[in-house]
Amino acid sequence: MTESTLFTAAFVLYVASLVVYSAALFARREKWSKAGTFLALAGFAVHSVALVVRTAASGHAPFTNMYESLSFLSWAVVLALLVFGRSPKAPRLGPYLMLIVVGLVALASSPLMPKQAAPLVPALQSYWLWLHVSVTLLGEAFFAVAFVASLLFLAGRDADKKDRLDALAYRAVAVGFPLFTLGGLVFGMVWAYRAWGRYWAWDPKEVWSLITWLVFALYLHTRIVMGWKGRRSAIIAVVGFLAALFTFFGVNYLLTGRLPGRAVHVLRRQLPLDRPAQLRLTEHYR
Question: Which end of the chain is more exposed for a tag (fewer CB within 10 A), N or C?
């Protein structure tokens, strides 16, 4: 099977999982949630194969353009759901997280996202870049769990359920924050140094990654040191995930002026300054 066929099959399974999860939520049928989890697991398995096939076909890691990054992020969110949704005592986040997954996969499948795998410019042929992107997206997937749990906490009324949601959000941030720190900051700075000869350039992507990191650092600091729980922590987690979303989408499509200086600098050092090379590097940053 081709990567496109596998990706479509995973999308169908994710949609089916969302439908079953939603039906279980509204009909209050707990047993149906197990079927939703099974469908999510099946979609995750097919999606994993699709990522492997994409890697083998392209010759590089499957997150070097926006289509691949959306695909990997949706895969990572399902992984986070499977990690935190195994316990029977865990709050039911399935319908909400699968809604995020379906949205990401639908966006990746849209004509807006070029899907053709192209040869990478030398600056992108780096294991540090692949570590930077993959570990960062894994961290953001766990932030998505904290985001959903925090929203449900803010909207909830049952005290016991809210306590479990609060604890779940904290555990998700406790997993996501080290991953985001390692991938978004440490690996990102190492790759930037190897590609551009400097660790930090204060471009919008770096600044918003730092803002996201500071928000979640504030979450952990206020919770561990100052004893904050409940509503205040939930609001910080929501703001942190929104900052992560803006870093992923908003910087690329709303803020301008980030790409040309870096792209030209890299291309002058490593490639003839031709249009196809510039377009490939532009596609990576989108």
Answer: N
pLDDT digit string (tens) for 186-220? Answer: 998 888 888 777 887 787 888 889 999 999 999 99
Tokens 């992020």 locate to: 73
Q: Distance between alpha carbon 38 and the CA centroid of its chain, in Å?
A: 22
**What separation in angstroms does the CA of 270 have from each of 195, 196, 274?**
9, 10, 12
Which run of H or of E encompasses 248?
none
Read off the pLDDT of residues 131-181 as tens digits, 9 standing for 90 and up. Answer: 898 999 999 999 999 999 999 999 988 888 889 999 999 999 999 999 999
Percent of the chain with pLDDT over 90: 47
> Sign of torsion, CA 216 137 276 121?
positive
Single pTM value for the model: 0.85
Q: Give the largest Cα separation in the chain, rounded.
A: 63
CB 233 within 8 A of CB 169: yes
How many other CB atoms sit within 10 Å of the CB of residue 128? 17
Residue of 114, 140, 157 lying closest to 165 (CA atoms): 157
Q: Which residue has the tokens 């499977």?
A: 82
